[in-house]
Amino acid sequence: MKIHLTTIPGSVVAPRGFLASGVFCDIKRLGTGKGSEKGQKRDLALIVSTAPATCAGMFTTNQVCAAPVKLCIQRVKRGRAQAIVANSGNANACTGARGFNDALEMARCAAEAVSAALKLAKPLDAEAVLVGSTGRIGVPLPMQNVRRGILAAAEALGHTPEHAAQAAEAIMTSDTYPKQIAVEFDLGNKPVRIGGIAKGAGMIHPAMSRTGARPAALAPGASAFHATMLCFITTDAAIAPGPLQTALEQAVANSFNRITVDGDTSTNDTVLVLANGLAGNRPISKRDAAFEKFQAALSHVCAELAKMIVRDGEGVHRVVTVRVTGARTLADADVAARAVANSPLVKTSWHGGDPNWGRVMAALGYSAATVVEEKVDIGYSAPGSKKVLWCVKRGRPTQVSFANLCAAVAQKQFELHINLNLGKAGAVIYATDLTEQYVEFNKGDLSAPGTPGG
Known about the structure:
This protein is α+β, with helices and mostly antiparallel strands and 454 residues long. It has helices at residues 67-76, 96-117, 143-155, 161-170, 241-253, 289-311, 330-341, 344-352, 357-366, 402-409, 436-442, and strands at 6-7, 18-23, 44-59, 80-90, 129-136, 179-187, 190-199, 230-235, 270-275, 319-327, 377-381, 389-393, 396-397, 413-419, 425-432. The chain has two domains: 6-311, L-amino peptidase D-ALA esterase/amidase, CATH 3.60.70.12; 319-434, ArgJ beta chain, C-terminal domain (Ubiquitin-like (UB roll), Roll). It is built from eleven helices and 15 strands. The strands form two sheets. Strands 1, 2, 3, 4, 5, 6, 7, 8 and 9 form a nine-stranded mixed sheet that branches. It has a six-stranded mixed sheet with strand order 13-12-11-14-10-15. The longest helix has 23 residues, at 289-311.
């Protein structure tokens, strides 16, 4: 559905009734005061609705998931929340019972600090606070620093774009820039706003679900989907938990679950939405046109944030849209696109500007999709262009020149078209190349033997 959207400043504080902040509390290097490799980068974010809100969430399907994920899965089932507290520099993953208790303590401390800072007549319930963490695995949170940071963040809450930018910075890890967006649209003659912030640059290949459980399609031997990302979305729309969850599932399916940087797995990926109803619109039902409008706006916000993550991938030089058509089933189209998008050989050839369709063909062949060599077409185009330079038709190379093919893949962004010619199903994946810079960044640090977890 097409909808008129106006981009506005403020990301998560653009919707009415939302406050945000971000502070530095030295989570990554306890006691050194040095912060992260980026210096004293803010590392704790707080987002608060001044009114009770409905909530929805999507979470990693990794069987090893972090304590904040486990906590949020439980709390989102209630359908009500009012605040999100999140830290970077420490994933609070593989930390056992202590880690779960620390996540509970983060929520409790945030509820207490927000109630005091905002002088709430009715104190915020700790169960109305959702938690996110990202960073190194297997290291306990420095809770003294975290508590100090939460108190400071509560005192620093505000509703300006600068406050939202501070929160966006605070959840960054290897990101090179903060990712944020806000839009406004009309819903029943009421202006409604949706804003969001996200982080992610490496370990990106999401396939999130509402419960963190793997979808049935991930049968034994199938390829699991992975992610390291956080996304927090706010809206002043009036919408019940059920429709909100449905809208989020659809939005994530066509955005965050459509991107890949390296196909690797993490433990903390989370998308959370708070909706406080302060726009004053008639409550959105799944059965009315307002739901379609809200769905379109939420999908736009998620798609834009997801594309920012791909463009900011670790060491990324080129961004490639992989389009598979003509598959027998949607599942076939999806696994074929993912096999190509995550092939190290394909990705390194993209980096080198080499239009190596043989590697694409090989990836299709080992994917779980039904592929008939004599039916496959492969081609390249500029982003959004209908003019495709076909280098393979019906499994055989065409007469197109190598120079023209090289020119097609020399751009910073291009599209790879694959037609399996076996059916009507298709899929799209937004992918990246694989560079020397990615290897350099991720090869490990032998000078830090005390932190082998992540």
